[in-house]
Each structure stands twice: as C-alpha cells, then as structure tokens.
Amino acid sequence: MNIDDGQISKAAATLRCLSVDMIEKAASGHPGAAMGMADIAAVLWLRFLKFDPSQPAWADRDRLVFSGGHASALLYSLLHLSGAGLSMEDLRNFRQLGSRTPGHPERGVTPGVEVTTGPLGQGFAMAVGMALAERFQAARDNVPGHEIVSHRTWCFLGDGDMQEGVSHEAASLAGLQKLDRLVCMYDSNGITIEGSTALSSADDTRRRFESYGWKVFEADGHDIAAITAKIRAAMRTEGKPSLIIFKTEIGHGAPAKGGTAGCHGAPLGAEEAAAAKKALGFDPAQSFAVPEEAAAAFSQRARAMKRVRLAWDREFARWEEAAGAEKAAARKAADALALPEGLRDALPVFAAGESVSTRAASGSVMNAIAPLVPSLVGGSADLAPSNKTYLKGFADMTAETPAGRNMRFGIRELGMAAVLNGMAAHGSVRPFGATFFVFSDYCRPAVRLAALMKLPVVFVFSHDSFYVGEDGATHQPVEQLASWRIMPDVLVLRPADANETAAAWMMALERKDGPTLLLLSRQNLPVLPPADPEGVRRGGYVAFDESPFNLPRPVDLSIVATGSEVSVAVEAAKRLVAAGRHVRVVSMPSPGLFLSQSQLYRDSVLPPSCGRRLIVEAGVRNGWEVFAEDRERTAYITLDRFGLSGKCSDLAKEFGFTPENVVAQANILLAR
After folding, report:
1. Which residue out of 249, 272, 413, 565 is catalytically annotated?
2. Rounded to an integer, what distance in angstroms lies between the CA atom of residue 50 and that of residue 569?
3. Most buried among 256, 348, 511, 613, by the most CB within 10 A?
4. pLDDT by residue (tens digit) across 169-218?
5. Residue 210 catalytic?
C-alpha cells in the first residue's frame, strides 16, 4: 500500500510541530530550516530512502546527510517517528547536557546520524565522499548476479552551504567523477542570519552546477507531487550527480515569522509557536503530539524497509557463496578495518647510513602495504609527485575505473579532507590524503571534524619545515606543529628517519579512533641505527646515549628533538661525547603520546636527575615548556619567526639548526 500525498502532508506537519516544540522547550535552536524542509524530508523518507530503522547501521542503507546541521530538530523528529531509537524523552531533552539530541548532529551520539555536521558546506563534501566510497565498494565487492552494494547518498543543503568555498571544491570533484548515485536537495529559501541572500550573493546556482557536470532540477519545495517527481527523475539520471533546487519558505507554517530571518536561529516564541500549530491543524495547547495518521505512515514505511533489509540479508548469504571464501573474508576485513597478518614484516627496512627523505620513505612504505591492504584509497591535492603518495600499479579512481585506488583531488585541500571524512564515515575503505604541511591549515576544519567523529583518516603532510628552502616563508611551516598538537584526538607523528616513518605508518593504520597526521621531510635525512618501534609507539625513546670511554656516569645533558632535527642532535651529541660529556638524544615523534605514558617510562627516557635539557625543533617553542625539568637549565633551538627564501643549507645556518650551534648551546647549558 502506497503512502498517499495526504499522509505525507500530515507527516510533514507533524515534523514541523515536533521541531517547534523541541526548540521552544530548549529555548534554543533553529526552527526555520526544519520547518522549511519538512515537506521534502517527508517525501524522501516515506517514499525513497532505503533505511531500516530497526538496523540503522545496515551496510547497504542509503546514507542521508544534513549538511545544514542546524536543522537537527527535523532529523531527530524523523528518527523518532521512524522508530530508529530516539524516544520522545530524547526529543524533550533537545540541546540539553548529556542528551542524544545535541544542537547539531553528532556521529556516535545519535543512532541514524551518519556524520557530524554544523560547519556549513562540510556535510555536502562528506556526502560526495560517501558516494565515492559506495561506488568503490560496489566495484570491489559485487559479483555478477549478486549486487550487495547498491545504495544512494542523499544530502540536504542550504544557502549557507552553497556560499562556503568547500561546496565549490566538492561539487566540482563530484561532477568530474560522475557520481550518479548522489542526489543533493537544495533548500533554497533565500534567507541567512543577516537577511536576504541577495545581500551577499548573486550566484546562478543552476548554471554553476551545470558547469560542474551536474544534472539540475527545480521544483516547489512545498508541493508533494512536484517533490516526488523531481526526486524520481534524479534517481533515473545516469552519468551525473543530481541537484534539486527546491524553492522553499524558511519557517513555512509560521504565520508572522515565516519567510523572514527572524525564524532562522531563535525559537518562534510561545505566541508564534501556537499560531503555527493552529495553522498546521494541530492543537496549540498540546506539545509533542503525533497524530495516528503520521505515526501509521512511518510505521508502514519501517515495515517495508525491514522486508528490504531482510531480503538483502538473504542475498548477502548467496553472495558469500558465489564470491568465494577469499573475497568474503576480504570484505569482512575491510568492514572491520582489519590488517592482514604479517603486514609489519612487509614494511621496507632501511639500512643505517642511507640518506632518504621521510616523504620518499613514506612512499616506499605505502607501495609495500598497498597490495596487502586493498581498502587503502586516496590521493594528493595535486602534489603526488612531491609527497610520493601515488600507489604504483593501481588505477586512478574514475567513473570508468571506480575500483581505482588513486584519487586526483586537484588543488582542493579542504574539499579533499572533507571528502576523505565522508569516505571513512561510509565505511569499508581506509582513506588517505596528502599535501604540503604548510597547507594543512586549509584542511583544518575537516581534520577537526574527523577528530570529533573519531574517523581513522591518514593525512600525509610533507615538506614539513623551513628546509623547503627557496620557496620561502609562504611555504615554510612554523606554527603548524604546535597548533596541530593541541587539537584533541589528533595523532601527530613527525618521524626522524625512514625506519621511524615505517613505524609511524603502522601506527596510523592500526588506529581506528581518530585521524593521524604524518609530517614528512622534503630533504634527505640520514637513516639512524634501527629505531625502536615500541619507542615510536610510545611517542618518544632514547635514540642515542653514549658516555666518554663508555664509562658509567650520570647523563650530563638530554637533547630532545623531532623529525629532521634528530640527526642534527645525534651529530652534535657525538661531538660532545668526544669532548668528555655523557649525552642522551631523545627522538620524540609525538610529545603528546609520550606525555600519556607512565611516569616510570617517561623518567627512564628523560631522567629527572638530569635537569639540563636542550629542545631542538624547526617550529615555534609553544608547548615544549612542559619538558623543562629545571627552567634555568633548559634551552631551546626553535623557530619563532617566519622563514626566508634561500638554500636550505644556508637557512639551517641562519636559524641555528646545525650541529655546531647545538654544540654551542649545549656547552652554555653544561656550564650552568
């Protein structure tokens, strides 16, 4: 039995009233978008969305993203009415501390929420990533006669999403990739916080998206039949992603505030809320009311989707038999992000004395593990030849080769990072992305969301210091190291040589609860004596410790360094030992990880009895003060200014990152 237009209209009215009630009770929220999008949401959910609320994590469900996360009240109302696990009490606790209905949707907090949204535009870009992951997974897993990957990605977006630059980056990439299972629904109400969008934008959205290679439709966003027709047409579109521009009224149903900026980001108020309910055919005296007709429509859809999901379960069992044990096991491993046994043994080992940049070492590691980790997919922001991230022997990911594992992101750093988040959130792939470290600031908002969502995306940031050289200050990261280290749940690793790089890659692949940043050198670095993999995993370890004539005596000085500065510190330490001093060099690829270790381990690496410490890192000093056991006997060789254009060897002398200067600063400390 089909759900008729009248039932959908009643469902939409119910969604509006529930959203209004949630926001009024919280005295906080955004009723405008929730009310304006309710008709479109009701049509999508009750007629098209493939989603079984009894199994919200079902692998072949459609993915639905609310890029405008401020419309969360509408999403929560949908999840409640469908029976996806949100109770009426959850709706009543909207925006309250500890509730499952936070102000913006958060992955992992609310069942049925695919991604954390709020910063506008990023949800749209993540939807592009989800569509890419679906297509890749389908090409990888489906076998003739057994299609177990066949779902769509749907995205709601608004005027704010359209204005953010990341939407341009993501839309261009989606058009190039011909993602015809991606359907985006644009809530075009012409209102932002300050008023009409005409105050700040004169874009022709249709022509813009058509130029990207999208199929564009337009319809009245409050006409149930028109909404249905355009969604159906978008689903029939082949070879292009679809954008449906729905003309809507913000706050539709609110008699006085509808169509105005007054209902964008504040409750309607008791009087206007009551008037809206009356206009929508509801009793103004009742709150959180769900008419039987609306409840029945959602129950009917839920039963139908459960049958679809159960049929898929049976098909999956047939697929396992047809695909064979090896392919089925590979699918299971990809879903669990499991690594094959023996992967560590496949890592290249670099001989001490070689001279290898850590970006080149990373490239060698990636190409050694790629055949063993078929879910590893990614690319660079037009810098693969420089940051060595191209997977050799594998195709580019395109519409013609959807199972390709190299992605051409173009010069779209923020779009790349957000798309990677979408791929990781979709599941069954392990994405990576790369650019120069100084451009990591372009990626920052998306990496922050990856940390919030605990998505295991790997970011490869090469050219990590002033050793970029002649490109000058614009390309020489200085403050980035400190700024990334203070972001919660982001693992930052700056390996000292090729073998530390291999260990860092293993840590990144083993991590399942957040993003990892690998910071790699442009210049060649000497391969040190074999790194201690367990020490790298602990964030810091003793890389060099020698006493004159091998005599047992206390450590006179500890030099703490990271990345390319470790080899400089080791060379300086050797000279100091020759001069009669007992010197220890600590390689600290991750100060944060090191500080999380037991006091016993930290003291074994940096003995408190040795108060003299010299910190050496080609970045700002901020954050290193925590390692000052004795402030009067702690010194720093850091870079607390912007860089310069010149040969990297000349810059090293200019900035003091030479064995000679390390020895000189050490001797000053040793005299105290």
Report:
1. 413
2. 59
3. 613
4. 999 999 999 999 999 999 999 999 999 999 999 999 999 999 999 999 99
5. no
